[in-house]
């Protein structure tokens, strides 16, 4: 999501850190360290492997096999063909007098070896099956005999009840694409946005790269792909995120919104209590692996590695490089209210506190009359400062405020009790949504702890939101958690008739602990400077959120098109109308089909999309001609998306080649040219992954309205969108107020116009009015008064029946 901000501006600092082994070749040294980190992660996941790594069997299956062997021995049969007797001979001689015990031990060891061999064989077979990607290339709704056979085998080898990490050992590694194919795809992607002479120059650089440097760089990547778990993901995390020295605010965080039209309770403490309880229930399910692994299109498992660091994680600043600190467990949250920090326990000796008890603790914080100490109120602005500066100040805080800093950084997550209301209002719906988005993304610059994996923001009127740091995982992971949280706190936990959490308070609970910072004078100036910079960054962001309610996913399905490709092509039309030119477009796609995969870029500005946009702006083109070009653009986008999903994208391969060239201190004009380009349009779809948690037919307003992120370029846009049910789409747009070339509201209007124009090309959408194609005048079509028929419910809403709790 927000990754485009980091990806386009990174400058790798390639100083080595921490190895005990010194290799003359810096690339080999880095590859060695990557593999070492991979193996350490595998060892640290031993317990997960013990619970679920024996897919499709279970640990109890060994006991079944051992019992079967014992039964065979009782019937005087030898299923081991003499191997158990050889094992007996290898046992210590001192056990000779325990003949029966030796027999049992030999049978147990033989059963263990046979069981391990069977599990290993099943893993290898499943991994080979999961390398098949032919199903991705088939037309929507069609399935070949080969794919049907493959699907049946995957289901057989996957077992009946896979746990969250069950597939990890069976996932294939991300392939290294052919460097010739990558360069060819790159040149094709930049052709629409370059002048002829610029493209010819770029093509010459590409040919020289293929002749001189490509083969050597590619050799190193293939070596890494065999040694490390993923040839690109650890470098992506390190160089794009952790080595970036830019402030996290706007650049490396994104936000997720609450329900758009309803607020289950107006009581701030009650909403906080239920939300925190739901989040900790999710953490408990995560620990027990009770979360089902995500299956793409219901059949292909995705990597679950990113779930490991949702909770108890902090991005710790360093002078040259940050690092992620992850704890196995944490039994408290850090809370910020009116500039005061609190350590609030979440567990009692009997287990997790009830929602009502958590509400009581939050209410105690809200009722605490003590003022913030000097500069404590703005202390969190340090986490919005450039990383090197914050790292230096943090060293001072570790000395003078050790306990307070540790309480914040070791918390399960951060909670900000915002003293102001937020969310949709009837008085000024458009402005209120924009302010809501801005508050979640940037706030005031000093009211979020941006280092934490995520901050739960609870506003004074009960509205919720998340601010998420990006380095530890990508949006689908936090989105999955957020969907569970909203559904659980609203439908399963619920609220009493007076808006409080259900249950009873616990007066015996100790008061939340107020954290004391004892800031020295030299920190005061750093806080003031950090606050000034954070307010500058926050004040420069122009956010615009609007629900588009003329049509949604159901209409696009009736057109027999991919909903994502439909929107992406319409965005090209909207952006062209906004800026009068085409630009490189960044769309995030996931590579979690592979072990420890993260993301890939879909370059959505294609020649086919440009041809369609040109036709739409040409009044002489007929609707039939435009529709044919639109379908061609959608098909091209689908092909690019499928290539990205299957590990055959462009940008991650070029990124890894660039890192190798920098490690070798090899100058590559072609790769330097690639990373001098700017993404003026950065886009992302926020997937709704657990529709079974929401009854969109009976409760259509109870769906998260998605989230957004900052622009990737000073003169660019950040656009995200989410399909709210079947008949609405919510867009989140951001840009910088300092730019004279962008305007988030202006682009929002162009997006509405473009969607109506595209829909009118189809018979099912001809009732939708649009402006005359190619004209320069004002839009004469019907405008969607997107909130005219909605009301803002600040009371406890009706929820599904208690007899149907969410699982």
From TrEMBL:
Which residue ranges have biased composition labelled Basic and acidic residues?
A: 775-785
The name this protein carries in UniProt is Carnitine O-palmitoyltransferase 1, muscle isoform
**One Pfam family for this entry, by name?**
Carn_acyltransf
Look up the record and name the pathway of this protein: Lipid metabolism; fatty acid beta-oxidation
* UniProt keywords, alphabetically: Acyltransferase, Fatty acid metabolism, Lipid metabolism, Membrane, Mitochondrion, Mitochondrion outer membrane, Transferase, Transmembrane, Transmembrane helix, Transport
Q: State any single GO MF term.
A: palmitoyl-(protein) hydrolase activity
Recorded hits in SUPFAM superfamilies, A to Z, give: CoA-dependent acyltransferases
Q: Which InterPro entries match?
A: Carn_acyl_trans (IPR000542), CAT-like_dom_sf (IPR023213), Cho/carn_acyl_trans (IPR039551), Cho/carn_acyl_trans_2 (IPR042231), CPT_N (IPR032476)
Indicate the residues that form the catalytic site.
Answer: 470
From the broadest rank down, the organism's phylogenetic lineage runs: Eukaryota, Metazoa, Chordata, Craniata, Vertebrata
Task: Kindly indicate where the leader peptide sits in this chain.
Answer: none
Residue stretches making up the Carnitine O-palmitoyltransferase N-terminal domain:
1-47
For bias type Polar residues, the affected ranges are 797-807
Q: What does this protein do?
A: Catalyzes the transfer of the acyl group of long-chain fatty acid-CoA conjugates onto carnitine, an essential step for the mitochondrial uptake of long-chain fatty acids and their subsequent beta-oxidation in the mitochondrion.
* TM annotation in the entry: 104-126
Please write the reaction equations for the catalytic activity of this protein: (R)-carnitine + hexadecanoyl-CoA = O-hexadecanoyl-(R)-carnitine + CoA
Q: What is its EC class?
A: transferase
Locate the region Disordered.
772-807
Query: What is the topology of this protein in the membrane according to its UniProt annotation?
Result: Multi-pass membrane protein
Instruction: Describe the family membership recorded for this protein in Swiss-Prot or TrEMBL.
Output: Belongs to the carnitine/choline acetyltransferase family.
Q: Which GO terms describe its biological process?
A: carnitine metabolic process; fatty acid beta-oxidation; long-chain fatty acid transport; regulation of postsynaptic membrane neurotransmitter receptor levels
Q: Where in the cell is it found?
A: Mitochondrion outer membrane
């Amino acid at each position: 999501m927000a990754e485009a901000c980091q990806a386009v501006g990174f400058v790798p600092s390639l100083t080595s850190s921490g190895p005990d082994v010194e290799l003359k070749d810096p690339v080999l040294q880095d590859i060695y360290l990557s593999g070492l980190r991979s193996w350490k992660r595998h060892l640290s996941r031993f317990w997960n492997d013990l619970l679920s790594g024996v897919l499709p069997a279970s640990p109890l299956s060994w006991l079944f096999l051992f019992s079967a062997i014992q039964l065979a021995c009782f019937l005087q049969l030898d299923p081991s063909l003499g191997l158990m007797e050889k094992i007996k001979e290898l046992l210590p001689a001192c056990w000779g007098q325990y003949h029966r015990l030796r027999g049992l031990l030999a049978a147990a060891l033989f059963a263990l070896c046979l069981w391990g061999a069977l599990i290993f064989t099943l893993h290898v077979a499943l991994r080979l099956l999961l390398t098949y990607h032919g199903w991705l290339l088939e037309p929507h709704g069609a399935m070949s005999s080969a794919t049907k056979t493959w699907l049946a085998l995957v289901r057989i080898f996957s077992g009946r009840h896979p746990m969250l990490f069950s597939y990890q050992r069976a996932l294939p590694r991300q392939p290294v694409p052919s460097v010739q194919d990558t360069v060819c795809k790159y040149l094709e992607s930049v052709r629409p946005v370059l002048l002829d002479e610029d493209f010819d120059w770029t093509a010459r650089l590409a040919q020289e790269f293929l002749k001189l440097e490509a083969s050597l760089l590619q050799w190193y990547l293939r070596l890494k792909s065999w040694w490390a778990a993923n040839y690109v993901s650890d470098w992506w995390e390190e160089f794009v995120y952790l080595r970036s020295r830019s402030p996290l605010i706007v650049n490396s965080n994104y936000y997720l919104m609450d329900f758009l039209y309803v607020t289950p309770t107006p009581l701030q403490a009650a909403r906080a209590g239920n939300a925190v309880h739901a989040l900790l229930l999710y953490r408990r399910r995560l620990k027990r692996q009770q979360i089902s692994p995500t299956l793409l299109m219901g059949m292909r498992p995705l990597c679950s590695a990113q779930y490991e660091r949702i909770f108890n994680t902090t991005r710790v600043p360093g002078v040259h490089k940050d690092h992620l600190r992850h704890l196995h467990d944490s039994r408290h949250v850090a809370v910020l209210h009116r500039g005061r920090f609190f350590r609030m326990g979440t567990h009692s000796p009997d287990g997790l506190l009830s929602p009502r008890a958590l509400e009581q603790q939050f209410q105690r914080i809200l009722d605490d009359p003590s003022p913030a100490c000097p500069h404590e109120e703005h202390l969190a602005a340090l986490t919005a400062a450039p990383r090197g500066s914050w790292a230096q100040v943090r060293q001072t805080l570790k000395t003078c405020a050790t306990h307070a800093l540790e309480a914040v950084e070791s918390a399960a997550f951060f909670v900000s009790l915002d003293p102001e209301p937020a969310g949709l209002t009837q008085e000024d719906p458009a402005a209120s949504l924009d302010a809501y988005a801005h508050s979640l993304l940037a706030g005031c610059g000093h009211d979020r702890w941006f280092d934490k994996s995520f901050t739960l923001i609870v506003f004074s009127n009960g509205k919720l939101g998340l601010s998420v740091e990006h380095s530890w995982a990508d949006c689908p992971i936090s989105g999955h958690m957020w969907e569970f949280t909203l559904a659980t706190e609203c439908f399963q936990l619920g609220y009493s008739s007076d808006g409080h959490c259900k249950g009873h308070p616990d007066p015996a609970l100790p008061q939340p602990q107020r954290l004391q910072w004892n800031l020295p004078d030299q920190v005061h100036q750093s806080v003031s400077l950090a606050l000034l910079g954070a307010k500058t960054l926050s004040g420069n962001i122009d956010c615009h959120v609007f629900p588009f309610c003329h049509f949604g996913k159901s209409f696009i399905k009736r057109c027999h098109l991919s909903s994502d490709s439909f929107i992406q092509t319409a965005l090209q039309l909207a952006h062209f109308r906004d800026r009068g030119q085409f630009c490189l477009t960044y769309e995030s796609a996931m590579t979690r089909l592979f072990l420890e995969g993260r993301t890939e870029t879909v370059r959505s500005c294609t020649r086919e999309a440009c041809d369609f946009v040109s036709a739409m702006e040409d009044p002489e083109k007929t609707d039939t001609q435009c529709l044919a070009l639109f379908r061609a653009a959608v098909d091209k986008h689908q092909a690019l998306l499928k290539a990205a999903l299957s590990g055959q994208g462009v940008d991650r391969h070029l990124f890894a080649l660039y890192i190798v060239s920098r490690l070798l201190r090899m100058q590559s004009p072609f790769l330097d040219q690639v990373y001098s380009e700017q993404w003026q349009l950065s886009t992302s779809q926020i997937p709704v992954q657990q529709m079974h948690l929401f009854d969109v037919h009976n409760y259509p307003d109870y769906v998260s309205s998605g989230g957004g992120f900052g622009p990737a370029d000073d003169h660019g846009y950040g656009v995200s969108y989410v399909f709210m049910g079947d008949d609405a789409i919510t867009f989140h747009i951001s840009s910088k107020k300092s730019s004279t070339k962008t305007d988030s509201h202006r682009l929002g209007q162009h997006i509405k116009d473009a969607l109506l124009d595209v829909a009118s090309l189809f018979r099912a959408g001809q009732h939708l009015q649009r402006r005359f194609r190619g004209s320069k005048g004002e839009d004469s079509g019907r405008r969607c008064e997107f909130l005219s028929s909605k009301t803002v419910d600040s009371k406890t809403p009706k929820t599904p029946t208690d007899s149907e709790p969410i699982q």
